[in-house]
Amino acid sequence: MFTGNTKYVAIKKNSLNNYNTNVSCKLNLLLFILYTLLLKFSYTGIVLSLVTRSLSMDLIFLFALQHFLVVSLLLRCGDIEPHPGPKNKESLSICHYNINSISAHNFAKLSSLEAFNTVHNFDIICISESFLDSSFSLEDSALYLKGYKLVRADHPLNIKRGGVCIYYKETLPIKFLDIINLQECLVCEILYNNKKCSIVSLYRSPSQSANEFHIFLKELELIIDSICTPGSSNLIILVGDFNAKLSLWKPDDPDTMEGIEISAMTSSYGLTQIISESTHILPNSSSCIDLLFTNQPNMITNSGVLPSLHSNCHHQIYMQTNFKVVFLSPYEHVV
Length: 335
Description:
Layout: H1 2-52, H2 57-77, E1 87-89, E2 93-98, H3 104-120, E3 124-128, E4 148-153, E5 164-169, E6 174-176, E7 185-192, E8 195-203, H4 210-227, E9 235-241, H5 257-268, E10 272-273, E11 280-282, E12 285-287, E13 290-294, E14 300-306, E15 316-321, E16 325-327
Parallel strand pairs: 2-3, 8-9
Antiparallel strand pairs: 1-16, 2-15, 3-5, 4-5, 6-7, 7-8, 9-13, 10-13, 11-12, 14-15
């Protein structure tokens, strides 16, 4: 009985939708026919006015009605944008969040992130420990974030561990680079004022052996070397969960071997780490392991740490730049 009622309601709803569609098509056709007839009468009236050298009130009325019909047809389309061109924004904003599994708790963390972003409206959201594998397709609706596109670098063993991904605004003029030897890492660039802003987002597992860490460091150095142009003023941003500690970054953190070597390597490229608060807080300890490096701290107008959206996740780190980005038009131009 329940299935029958549901089917009946569905059929009735579809019938009503078809009826509304047919009425809308007929009304649009009628408006177009009226416009065509008025156009013909208008041309006839223009010829007569040239002969008599006078413009009648009837002709003025035809012109007015003609414009009214054009506007009516456009408004009925429902997708007319008065200013569909590129738009400027004062600054580029980037957030990094170790989410500790996007799909956990039925994607509740992603829902919290979407709500959080309605306030902050970040242009780029870098995610660490996404815990995605091939069972989640790129078109998976559960991973959808309204107004954003998604690029992923899952764990190399295709297991639900580690991994990074980037959500970026659909209208952001961004290009992802295929120069990556480092696993669980994404590299992209954005053009601004005839310059480049290169962004590296990565995750480093704390379970790496000493040998694995030195391979990681060497591959990261190759990436930085490939985007670092000597003598240029291009901006470099390196962000992620490094699982490394250094008292230089946060005074009450211990100096670990990973922190010392990462600091030495990044410093050789003129990169400065600008996060100085705890990002990973446990019941008996806290540390700054979500890091943000840049070669031009003077171009970062705002940065810091935001409270975690979930009890078992890291705090978010964020930054804003002082340059404008020209966003692409969200509307498709048809010629």
